[in-house]
Amino acid sequence: MAASSLDSHGLSQPSYSLRRINRPFTTEYRIYFEQQENTTKNDTDSPIVKNSVPISPFHDIPLYHDMEKGILNMVVEIPRWSQAKFEISRSKSLNPIIQDQLDGELRFVKNCFPYKGYIWNYGALPQTWEDPSHFMHDPAGSTGRTRGDNDPLDAIEISPKSIIPTGSVKTVKPLGILCLVDSGETDWKVVVIDVHNPLAEKLDDIDDVELHFPGLLDATRDWFRWYKVPDGNEPNEFAFGGRFLDANYANKIIKECSDAWERLVSGRAEKGDVSIENTTLKDTPGKLDPDEIDLPPGEDLSPAPIEPEVFDGWVFLDKDSSQLGYSRGSLLGQPASLCINLDVEK
Amino acid sequence: MAASSLDSHGLSQPSYSLRRINRPFTTEYRIYFEQQENTTKNDTDSPIVKNSVPISPFHDIPLYHDMEKGILNMVVEIPRWSQAKFEISRSKSLNPIIQDQLDGELRFVKNCFPYKGYIWNYGALPQTWEDPSHFMHDPAGSTGRTRGDNDPLDAIEISPKSIIPTGSVKTVKPLGILCLVDSGETDWKVVVIDVHNPLAEKLDDIDDVELHFPGLLDATRDWFRWYKVPDGNEPNEFAFGGRFLDANYANKIIKECSDAWERLVSGRAEKGDVSIENTTLKDTPGKLDPDEIDLPPGEDLSPAPIEPEVFDGWVFLDKDSSQLGYSRGSLLGQPASLCINLDVEK
């Protein structure tokens, strides 16, 4: 159990810190997670001695922050309005946050009009796994034969006032879920809100989101449908007719992915390229001795320079066109300006 | 005529510079414009001697950059995705750019979901004036009895790749126009594009905008309808049923506002609180001797600190509600979070 203290909501807050290595916006950038172990000495005049233990944000941060209240932990990867596709690495030891690559290039999501970057704080639920060998629970049958995408469950945190930095661990409650189907893989997106947001107490289910944040759900579906098109992909599709499912359904999916993660980390599931190394889960095959982990010292380097047009540009998409059969090759690798109107490319 | 040089488009480019006084994000912040007068000495080894003359961006920058080609100058006040409401002061001598105030507070436009700040580069066309004593040209009669808003014509510059800094003077071509009616005042918004944008040659009229930037016009109308609602205003309305009128119509309005400005600056129109002081327009009542203008020295100060929630927050609006009769008082002065759902306030 992490060292913790009670916050104003009576929730115990584990204390995590980050160790950044190399420059942001490079392929070598890593954000490792560490957990503080506070050792208070009896002599109250002495400072608290903190001991940092490296952990995996995928495996060592508990999914349930307060299981009785249904409150979860979320690891934020991408702050609202930003574009760099930071994500928990599933294959590197201790699963640091890295910047995703596409065809060897660092991945920055385009600003697909009318959206500026990601429109929520985006991240993952720790200790969950979308098992690629597992066909998802689907009473309606509408996910067809899609399977898990081999990553932790994705979550979108919708607090409208907070931009949450990469690597933050937030206590959130689930409100609903959307079933994105991306290249034949099930890619659930859990809608959550930080319980410390003053509005959180008014939000308990997906209908409350539409009531208090009108337009957000439609925009979210629209965002996910189109965001990979500038990279040359077809628009994404959705199961359940694109409907957002309710909090109850979200909790069922979370439970399934929690169970899948338990099979993964205990060695009962085929792990493939997933690193299951961790430092806190006793009797698991991936358990490491923290004293034998030798991470480089943390740095706080300025980001590498990036072409201004990566950040400054809009991409316009012809969303109403019935002729979206443009070829991947015709768009791939071309500057964003060429995607402004897809008709121009055909 | 300004000192100028030919750019790659064969357009002569006057050389303007800015003199910033006081800290940005304070009520004392001023951006004055100066025009460079280059004096090249015969001795080519000598540096070019530059002499800066203070000018008014309202009166001293020519409207037409190339009248034959229909190319205009635009003074950019607000860069895309930013929120501070910078504008040419109509009443201060030499019309510096200042930050607008609302009820004594510096004005920052809210991020009305799904938009982040202004969605284009926003500014004004110099040497134009929406005469408040003048009822606008309107063959359809649909602007009713609205009159000019006493400011230069507003323009939105739609280059999707460029964020243009406050105070920039750009050469643009008009593509169309929208007739916003704001509190009973006609407030035209001219749609323009920087002629140096590679796409500009494909854009000649308003239909080209919809073709190449699908969704932009609808979003623009939506943006203008709602952007003042978080400050306690009713949604804005539009003449002509909210239709964007074509480039031909835009040019007619521009010509009318150019004529109105000529009446203003020549003393033939009642100027009210508008400062018509200038330094380059001979035989006008507001002509100043540049040598007698004593501007403080320019500074380059960091912006004053602003509450993070000004920049970090979304405001959600209940756009579909048929019951928008909320009172100004119920919203005015309340933090943005309370505007998230207007139903909550009623």
From TrEMBL, chains A, B:
Q: Which GO terms describe its molecular function?
A: inorganic diphosphate phosphatase activity; magnesium ion binding
GO CC term, one of those recorded? cytoplasm
Please give a single GO biological process term from the UniProt record.
Answer: phosphate-containing compound metabolic process
Which co-factors does it depend on? Mg(2+)
PROSITE patterns on file: PPASE
**What EC number(s) does this enzyme carry?**
3.6.1.1
Keyword NADP in record: no
Which InterPro entries does the UniProt record give?
Pyrophosphatase, Pyrophosphatase_sf
Keywords associated with the record:
Hydrolase, Magnesium, Metal-binding
Q: What highest taxon heads this organism's lineage?
A: Eukaryota
Segment Disordered: which positions? 278-302
Q: Provide the top EC class.
A: hydrolase
Question: What's this protein's family per the entry?
Answer: Belongs to the PPase family.
| Name of the protein in question | inorganic diphosphatase
The source organism is Rhypophila decipiens
For this protein's source organism, the top of the classification is: Eukaryota, Fungi, Dikarya, Ascomycota, Pezizomycotina
